[in-house]
Amino acid sequence: MLQIVFNEISAAELSSLGTLEQLELIEEFRVGKEDLENLKGDRFGKIERDGRVLYRFRAKDYRFYFEVKEGLVIVHRVLHKGTFSDFMFRSKLPVAEDEALAESKHFWKLIDEGRNARRM
């Protein structure tokens, strides 16, 4: 298992949820090196753009967006799945969720805000 670090924004997004929901999400959010090497199933995804690599983890109706640096899982955002499903529905993109996000400037702006936030 890798150590998980939340930044100010992702910690605030998580803390805006009810206590039980927070505990359930954190219980599910486990990341090991083998998970990132074998991105199988629906839980993990990889988003790439301009040489930047970001990972996605699905837990219940939420998505954790994170990167791995120096052995740490740095969580940039914790977003409800509806955040981008409306975007995909309106644009009717014939691609997977991760591919659509990789092309979305709005998505990368959200991630950059998280990346630039202080770690907790």
Describe this protein with a few key phrases:
alpha+beta; single chain; YaeB-like fold; 5 strands; globular
How would you describe the overall organization of this protein?
The protein has a five-stranded mixed sheet with strand order 1-5-4-3-2. It is globular. The longest helix is centred in the C-terminal third of the chain and has 11 residues, at 105-115. It contains six helices and five strands; from the N terminus they run βαααββββααα. The protein is 42% helix and 29% strand. It has a single domain (3-115), classed as 2-Layer Sandwich (YaeB-like fold). It has 120 residues and is α+β, with helices and mostly antiparallel strands.
Topology readout:
Layout lengths: L2 E4 L1 H8 L3 H10 L4 H5 L6 E6 L2 E8 L2 E8 L2 E9 L1 H10 L5 H7 L1 H11 L5
Structural class by secondary-structure content:
alpha+beta
In CATH, what is the class?
Answer: Alpha Beta
User: Largest beta sheet: what is the strand line-up?
Assistant: 1-5-4-3-2
Categorize the overall geometry: globular
Q: Low-confidence segments, ≥5 residues, pLDDT <50?
A: none
**Biggest sheet layout:** 5 strands, mixed
The helix count comes to 6
**SSE string:** EHHHEEEEHHH
Number of strands: 5
Helix content class = 40-55%
User: What is the CATH topology assignment?
Assistant: YaeB-like fold
From the alpha carbons, calculate the radius of gyration and give it in angstroms: 14 Å
- Percentage of residues in strands: 25-35%
CATH superfamily: RelE-like
Number of domains: 1
Rounded mean pLDDT is 81
How far apart the termini lie comes to 19 Å
